[in-house]
Design brief:
The complex is a heterodimer of chains A (229) and B (226). Helix content of chain A is 22%, strand content 24%. Chain A is an alpha/beta fold. Chain A has one domain: 3-Layer(aba) Sandwich (Glutaconate Coenzyme A-transferase). In chain A, a hairpin with a 2-residue loop joins β6 and β7. Chain A is globular, with a radius of gyration of 18 Å. Chain B is α/β, with parallel strands linked by helices and 226 residues long. Chain B has one domain: Glutaconate Coenzyme A-transferase. Chain B is globular and about 50 Å long. The two termini of chain B are 20 Å apart. The model of chain B has no long low-confidence stretch (mean pLDDT 97). The chains are: A alpha/beta (229), B alpha/beta (226). At the A-B interface, α4, α5 and α6 of A face α3 and α4 of B.
Chain lengths: 229, 226
């Protein structure tokens, strides 16, 4: 997959045009932190539906990608925790939402495997619990492991701190969380950032995510949480 | 008769006792609820590195002015101490699963005498998800449970076998309640300490699990400071 060396700087609305009905989409974030709020807001406004949402949690009913769920745009959620968004549980219990819960370490490692070209991995997490149901359990050197499979998505919306025009990214505080991993594991990756610098203005030593993984850049808007994270 | 303790004393007693469990330099992950309080009671001569699963190694107390760019488990506000590090979630769970975290402190719905833990779901109720709990209890070197001794209804939480869906099997090594401290070693539970004014008979009446009793049986550490 060939990406432009100099990344297009586009609007959140343009970026959302890459999300089609039925798309799978990864959204970065843990609780309030590291959510690409402006991209998600544009996706809520666009109303694209039948989405498979891959995110650590479903935020809150009125916050970030939690609004995608509340807005009925999501048919399936793959996450580790959905308890803070009442709407997620409600839609799941009403049979209107498919929910796949993964332990958080398994969740992120599945994304890592998806981005790192691995066919899966063996983890001891979940052995002897409902997590192992329907999965292969293998014994290696006397210890049991669950075979977990990789996750990829059509689109990833991630949040970073600064980008240069080549898409090299730095992160800030606990906004980093799932974002660098998701940047590896989708066909089209948009990074929402605080600011965009010229090439050479970010020291290569400080780059966490190399620009070759990024398709487009969006500068964060001024909505309440985008401004505060 | 078991002593009647107010909720604040229950929580602080459990947290204070657990805070004495760490050696200098220990890397510790605290869950939400009572475990969160543990950091308030770490002895002065012990330096503990608090890790949060969303990517902080070396978390400090909540700041005066909250900043959503620095949060921990459950979205709790935190500061970064000098010498701390920020990592991504995949590396954070590598630290957890890979055995680089010395201890995790979590709450429980049920614990069994051989160390099984149930703390993530109740069938028929809304399912919140397990978050990082399953990885933490599988990977951390020591799993410490901070829990009230019984449910609000007075039912035992320390059982022969868990009845709720498990978080993990055979992982718990220490259970601290307001009345007692139990150690679980090689699938066997031992009453290691007992709170003041609690008799062995009182304790047995609210504990379904079978356990041996340490001899001598010390008074629960930290209660002398109350």
């Amino acid at each position: 997959m060939s990406r432009k060396i100099v990344k297009p700087v586009i609007s959140a609305q343009e970026a959302v045009g890459r999300v089609k009905p039925g798309s799978s989409i990864m959204v970065g974030g843990f609780n309030y932190g590291g959510i690409p709020y402006s991209l998600v807001e544009a996706l809520v406004a666009a109303g694209v539906n039948d989405l498979t949402l891959i995110a650590n949690d479903t935020a809150y009913e009125n916050v970030g990608h939690g609004r995608l769920v509340a807005n009925g745009q999501v048919k399936k959620v793959i996450a580790s925790h959905v308890g803070l968004n009442k709407k997620t549980g409600q839609l799941f219990h009403d049979g209107q939402l498919e929910l796949e819960l993964c332990p958080q370490g398994t969740f992120v490692e599945r994304i890592r495997a998806g981005g790192f070209g691995l066919g899966g991995f063996l983890t001891p997490t979940g052995v002897g619990t409902v997590v192992e149901e329907g999965k292969q359990v293998l014994e290696v050197k006397g210890r049991k492991y669950i075979l977990e499979l990789p996750l990829r998505a059509d689109v990833a919306f991630i949040r970073a701190h600064r980008a240069d025009r080549h898409g090299n990214l730095t992160f800030f505080g606990t906004n980093r969380n799932f974002n660098p991993t998701m940047a590896m594991a989708a066909d089209y990756v948009v990074a929402e950032v605080d600011s965009i610098l010229e090439v050479g203005e970010i020291d290569p030593n400080d780059v966490v995510t190399p620009g070759i993984l990024i398709d487009a850049l969006v500068v964060k808007g001024d909505n309440y949480y985008a401004a505060r994270t | 008769m078991l002593p009647e303790l107010n909720e604040e004393l229950v929580r602080s007693r459990i947290a204070r006792r657990i805070a004495r469990e760490f050696h200098d330099g220990a890397v510790v992950n605290l869950g939400i609820g009572i475990p969160t309080l543990v950091s308030d009671y770490i002895p002065e001569d012990v330096r503990v590195v608090f890790q949060t699963e969303n990517g902080v190694v070396g978390a400090g107390p909540a700041p005066e002015v909250p900043d959503l760019r620095f949060i921990g488990a459950g979205g709790r506000h935190l500061t970064l101490l000098p010498g701390s590090a920020l990592v991504s979630s995949d590396l954070s769970f590598g630290l957890i699963r890979g055995g680089h975290v010395d201890a995790t402190v979590l709450g429980a719905l049920e614990v069994s005498q051989d160390g099984d833990l149930a703390n993530w779901m109740v069938p028929g109720k809304m399912v919140p998800g397990m978050g990082g709990a399953m990885d933490l209890v599988t990977g951390a070197r020591q799993v410490i449970i901070a829990t009230t001794h019984t449910t609000k209804k007075g039912d035992a939480k320390i059982l022969k076998e868990c009845t709720l869906p498990l978080t993990a099997k055979g992982v718990v090594s220490l259970v601290v309640t307001e009345f007692a401290v139990f150690r679980i070693c090689e699938g066997k539970m031992e009453l290691a300490e007992i709170a003041p004014d609690v008799t062995l008979e009182d304790l047995k009446a609210v504990t379904e699990a079978e356990y041996t009793v340490a001899d001598p049986l010390p008074i629960m550490q930290g209660t002398e400071e109350e």
